[in-house]
Write a structure and sequence with these properties.
This protein is mainly alpha-helical. The protein contains 4 helices and no strands.
Length: 93
């Protein structure tokens, strides 16, 4: 058991010591919004009742619409940062 805990703690320390630098707040915000957009898009279904479809449409408009605008802005702002562009370009609307 002690050996297991030692290995577990070593793996934890090793993994966190090489963690990537945190993303800038605007990129984090974009990523969160893009994830929400993808979530709502995944809920689309032709079998949904009209009320739920309206709710989804509103959510998609709010999240995806903003994400599209942010995507353009971030691509321009971070065009010379390959690491951030990789994160940003993982989403395409």
């Amino acid at each position: 058991m002690k050996r297991f805990l030692l290995i577990l703690s070593t793996v934890f320390i090793f993994n966190t010591s090489f963690a990537a630098a945190p993303l800038p707040k605007d990129v984090q915000d974009f990523r969160n919004l893009a994830e929400e957009c993808e979530h709502f898009a995944g809920e689309q279904d032709s079998d949904l009742d009209e009320q739920r479809q309206k709710e989804l449409d509103a959510s998609l408009q709010a999240t995806c619409g903003k994400a599209v605008v942010q995507l353009k802005t971030l691509r321009e702002k971070y065009k010379n940062d390959a690491a951030l562009m990789k994160v940003i370009n993982a989403y395409d609307f």
